[in-house]
Amino acid sequence: MEWTKLPRKLSLLTLSLGVAASMIPGAAFAASSLKTPVSGNHLPALIPANQPYISPQINTKSSNLVRVIVQLSGQPAAVGKYAARQGITALANTATEAAVNSQQEEVLDKAEAKKIDLTVNYKYDTILNGFEVTVPADRIPELAKISGVSSIYPNSTWYALPDQTVTEVTYRNDNAPLKQIHADWAADQGINGAGLKVGVIDTGVDYTHPDIAPAYKGGYDSFYQDNDPYEEVPLTPEEDTEYGVGYAGTSHGTHVSGTIIGQYAATGDVAQKGVAPGADLYVYKVLGRNLEKPDTSSGSSAQVIDGIERAVKDGMDVINLSLGSDSEKDVNSPDSIAINNAVLSGVTAVIANGNNGKNGFFSMGSPAASQLGISVGAVNSPINAFSGQFRAEIPNSVTSVTYDTYQPFHIMAYELGKSDFATIFGTGPVKVAYAKLGKPEDYPAGDLSDTIVLVSRGDLSFDVKIANAKARNVKALAIFNGNAKEIDGKIVPDLSDNIKDRNGFMGYNFGDGYQNVPTLDIQGTFGRQLARVIDATEEKTATFTFATDYPVELTAGDEMTNFSSLGPNFDGNLSIKPDIVAPGDGVLSTFPAYGKYHSEADYSKAYQRNSGTSMATPHVAGLALLIKQKHKDYTPFDIRAALANTADPVLYNGEPEDFYLQGPGRANVENAINTPALLQAIEPISILDKNFVPQNVINYNPSTSFGILLPGSEATKVLQLKNMSDSPLTYSASVEWNTGDSKHVSVTLDNSSITASAKSASTFNLKVNVAADTVPQSLQGNIVLKADGQPNLPTLHLPFAISVDKTTEQPSWGTGIQEATLSQPIVYTNSGAVLNYKLKATDINYYEVNLIGLDDVKKGSYQVSTTDSPDKFFEPGNYSTVISSTYHPYDHNGDPILDANGNPAVASLSDGVYKLEILGVKAKDNSKPIKIDYNKDTYYSTYTSFRFITVSDSGSSGGGGGGGGGTVVTPTPVVVSGAVKSLVEEGVQQVTVTPLTASKDGVTTVTVSDSDLKAALAKAAAAKTAVVISVSSIADKSAELSLTAEQLKLLAGMPAGSTVIVNIAGSAVSLPVSLLAASPAGQSLKLVIKQEPDAASKLIAGIPGAKVIGIPVSYEASWTTATGSTYLNVPTNVFIKRTFTVPGKIESKTAGVLFEKDGLVTPVASVFTPQADGTTLVTVSRPGFSVYAAVSKPAAAFTDIANSKSAVAIQTLADKLIIQGTSATTFAPQSNLTRAEFTALLTRALGLRTDTSVTFSDVKSTDWYAKDVAAASKAGLILGIGNGKFAPTQKVTRQELAVILDRAVKLTGTELKAVANPSFTTYSDSAKVAPYAKDSLQALTKAGIFASESGIAFNPVAPATRETAAAALYELLSKSGLIE
After folding, report:
1. Which residues are catalytic?
2. Do 416 and 316 share a structural domain?
3. How many domains, the chain?
4. Is residue 27 part of a domain?
5. Helices 1294-1308 and 1362-1375 meet at what angle, rounded to 10?
6. Nearest Cα to Cα of residue 1278 among 1226, 1239, 1221, 1335
7. pLDDT for 82-135, tens place per residue?
8. Same domain, 461 and 439
9. Residues 571, 565: Cα–Cα separation, whole Å
10. I need a surface site. Which of 165, 700, 1114, 1247 has the fewest CB within 10 A?
């Protein structure tokens, strides 16, 4: 699959007619969105059929002459150009101008052979392959039979626009986008956003504009740090006294604001009507003048985040962000984090998806990548396309030339409100002057108000050519198709007879705008001929005489624009983005006149057309307000689903566009408001909160992606029908493919009819099965729900995407470097993180890992790597860098700062949030640091971010530079004094032994002297004592403590219950002296505490969405002699308590611990204790050592436990990884447990393991529970049912449950305390309790671990339910101190 290419179904005609690539803004698309609209076709997009099509509007029985458009079967040249750019070789080779011309001549020759009398009026080869002819109507059927003719239409879709007088019933705004998204319907219903607040986070606003002033209520300027978010005024170089370069000012926020709340209050020819004019407008200025480049505008992440935070605090219902960075492809960028947390606070966040569509898949950026926001792509809208005819005359040429034939032209642009071209041009000759490429110096001197200026395409962009013409006050501008070329160092027009791809019309329609002059699009061949003849005259003038008719067509609209950025998202799951599309092409809205600073400002023309996803976004923000007004209880997730579920699909040639281009479709607010139910995918994800602490949330997604599936695999997604109404609803559910492979890939629903009760949700499953012989491919479809018996209700759809590949590795994002992830999102003074990333490009010979502040200033580097030879390149693959508290700083010019010895200096981080940039290039000289010009140079990059926190009383881990070639060095964890305190029992005295340390070969050895140990023990009284051996920090990732045989004897002589606590930089373990007393004679003890970063992936393999927090830690102990060692076996009744430190404040009951021993990974009970320094202590107590990791995963989303009395216990144990549901969303609380299931559950919670084999005859060594049964048997938790049998599949009874739990209590050494619970004698059926269970049941009941199920009876022989077992286990683990 060619992921980096545009989907082939992307509208070729749209692309061929789109705005020039040089006019598309790049990385920061907010402040520079297009100021000229891009439109669709000037002619209808004619769809070829299998048989030639003759329009029924043609009376083929008449012999009258008619003018018709004949479309041929070959693709036009524009299609070939696009196909060539996209690598579609076959199409590129057939859709050339030569091929088009050849087919046209062949068809005309055959028509002549058939003696069909026709006259060719126009030929089309760029956007349409065909011609417009005059022909007898009754010969048209014969013409249609000629091979190559695909359709014949009358030239009757063109009509003259009557002059209009502005009245109250005549729209003074561009109403097309409002009708397109059905906002006009909402207005008719009185739904206008009243009572709601919208925050526009942008360049500011001209709040003195008459169409904005009534709605404006306030805001803040985060750029200049004051309370006035006004737009910045343009300055000429003369007015720009400080910098002298001039400044264009800002206007973007005013345009965006008008689209949302335009008041339709202006009294001139034009007024702006917004989508939600009843809402209150607040504006937060985050973009402004770049003082380092004072002729430009920009903003930093810090300013954007400040704007978001202020908007949330000010109580916005919706925020609009028509801004972003195409280069930051990170779902956890600081901006995306801010968006996610705004949504979780109840604010609907709407974000532009970006204007980088030319780069194909993965071209979107941040913060559109926010998984909880609404990202918006752009479609075009219906637009007027005018055409006409003129006749040229050049009176004073060498041979006076008069072109008797009228030449066709199209209107490329015109002034807003001035489309009466018959009046503008009249019927008499109009003077024409030739001005080469349309540069200011190309224009003739004098008054040009009555002159049409003829210029060539090339060198300057169209908007600049039009602006230059506007500055000279020309009557009109005529641009002919062509190129520029260089002659003797000067750029001049190329006036050759034939220029490839430049002989026909240009095909652009920029519409109307006050910034425009009437602009004609003239065919290249004729225009260049005309220019040659005019240029040969002394006066260099000519005249044009215009025909009286100016036909106009309203284009269809609803085509994807070529600039709209594509997904998938960068979440590792290829999730569908954008979330919706809306009108964003040539959008007319308010423009500043800066009345605050100019008292005489004229707002009558303060309107402009802009293009970009920046313009689509406020349409959706307005729709969100309308939905919120109508449905006040809707959450941001509900609003997003309502828009997406009911969107109208965007088609090309009758087929759906790719979901990564259109998302669910174009918004239709009428359906979004009227739907009584929502369709969502329940997707547990992990995001970072504002403190960069991972949080598990449910993303109620209106689309879903299965990511990459391997051949022979299957996957399931949980969907929900959410009934928002007061009555039950039933929908018929089906799967509809857009692009499918039914032979190899099946997608099924477990229910074809879904019913949801009033105000409730009903879940169902979507399952995918991929055959083993499936080839790599991308598949897309919709889950479609239709309301039974209620056809008036909107149909709901949820798009899904499947990628089948031979590997689960992410496809190339087209960025050369991708997938930058940190092992932990928080770095501390003495606790680093490992940055992993992938080099995908094959031509990188130099790369840097740079540190960037939220002010977007590059502060320094962590790593600079080079191949040392320009001709040698890094191998594509995985690379890593350590991110620590120190880095190598840059000066204000971006150059490395050197110390006195000429080496890179070292600086320390201050608290805050930072970005990391991995930047790679193909350098001509890679032997020295490279400086990149981001606007000119070719480079590869990717980004991620982290938070740094200073921790006091901890050692320094040293610098963070160097490295390369993927080498990973992991720093030691942060020292937390609580690690020791948590292991010292209450009331136990504590003595400390100061150790000796040495570092060699990456291992720190720790020893104590006999004298120091004796001195410490002398301080201990004849009572339980904790001997503490503590090392505050180490430079290595492994530490090895050795205690001699003599020292072990000293320690073994301590009072019973005493412990030895060993703390190595925040990872500690408590060894009972009873364990040391069992040491073999003459042998020493070796205790190893080691970081195990490589164990992370193994520990969480197979757990969807799981993430290791911090770095796994292993604890191993052995008896040693001079010749060897023996593993220290721990009895099953000796629970060893250990702690380790992880970054971040991890709330209790939101994460768990996994441990691995002998290849088996299982959960174990754990306690998480947040510390004052921002870290968290994790405590695990179990009989044994091994490797442990703190793990978070998306919170369990069980939908069937709400009414369970054990809901809290079930949720807690599930979130701590101890129990699992029967599916992702069901726990089945009333189902029963088998003896094997409960034994495994309890054994794993206690962390019991054994090397012995199972002894029961009905348990095979290959059974999944065999090791658990063996461990439980050895620990005495289970005894079997007699005759050497265990009965693993038999349901465990309630009294058996009580006995096993009581044994577990005794095993852990827990002394249960009685609580105010009924005693055993209160059970009415106590006589039915077996004798072997009575004592256990009484003890557990008094302690509150067990309770009567019915209030008066215990039901001892009834099978224990899953909820009963969960509740009892929860109480046991809690009262034993093994969980919080």
Report:
1. 202, 252, 614
2. no
3. 6
4. no
5. 20
6. 1239
7. 334 333 333 344 446 677 778 888 899 899 888 998 888 656 554 356 777 888
8. yes
9. 17
10. 165
